[in-house]
Amino acid sequence: MTGAARDAALDRARSLIRPADLPADARTDEGFLDLLGNRDAPRPTAAQHAMNSRFVAAIYERAWRPVATAALGVGGLSGTRERARAADDLALGGEQRVLDVACGPGNFTRYFGSRLTGDGIAVGFDISRPMLGQAARRNRSGHAAYVRGDARRLPFEDGTFDAVCCYAALYLVPEPLTVVDELIRVLAPGGRIAVMTSVDRGCEPVASVLSTVAGTLGVRMFDRDTLPAIFAAAGLTEVRQQFHGLAQFLSATRPPLDGPS
Ligand SMILES: C[S@@+](CC[C@H](N)C(=O)[O-])C[C@H]1O[C@@H](n2cnc3c(N)ncnc32)[C@H](O)[C@@H]1O
Questions:
Q1: How many domains does the chain have?
Q2: What is the pLDDT of residues 38-49, one digit of tens each?
Q3: Is the CB of 131 under 6 A from ligand 1?
Q4: Looking at ligand 1, which residue's alpha carbon is closest to its atom 25?
Q5: Is 240 a domain residue?
Q6: Does the first or last residue of the chain, that is N or C, have fewer Cβ atoms within 10 Å of its Cβ?
Q7: Which helix (DSSP H) or strand (DSSP E) does residue 47 occupy?
């Protein structure tokens, strides 16, 4: 993979940003497009703080995520199988535009890019500079590029992407339901969305204890119904929800414009 192909991928990602959200002096010298400049990621919780650490960014893919996934009880689903599952749920292929929100070090984004051809592009989007530095060093390609911004306000026009993914992040971000609205807003008619986040499946009093521990760390536990209800209210179809331990996997389709409403 040549540097020119990686630069072309970053240019394609840049071309998708709304002009009003693209600062004239946006930097790319660390290998990703930085829309936030010197504004740092928020650090309100222990979990968010960890995501802004260079150390966690460096060990995330090999050590942090497998441990976190095991803690959520996503038993039997290796990182490789989880990536393949996400790509299948998103029906990836061809010259699609794919958005991987809260991409961390690009551990899913690069794989998504490997499923694309031609001008297809997987855009990894995150707020953490250390995470994106790692993504740019390890997981850039001719079909994978990275943008730094805040998922609570995605810098893309409505319906920009054929596929939108958000794995292992909604339980960490502030205002997660605002982020969900944004994921749906940027999904094109006929496009697919896939989300993995936490779910509280315990019976009382276990559920209360778990929620309290998670809350202390800044990890939110969702109930079973909130996300499918938001998907349905937004008009998404083929809503599918599966549970693995304390994780839920959701996928859905935005109906094509001439399809069933
Ligand atoms: C646990 S990592 C998930 C990485 C990857 N998606 C995965 O499944 O392994 C969560 C990511 O969410 C990012 N994040 C947190 N708040 C964010 C926000 N407001 N906007 C964009 N990214 C955010 C963090 O920086 C972190 O990289």
A1: 1
A2: 876 665 566 777
A3: yes
A4: 128
A5: no
A6: C
A7: helix 46-51
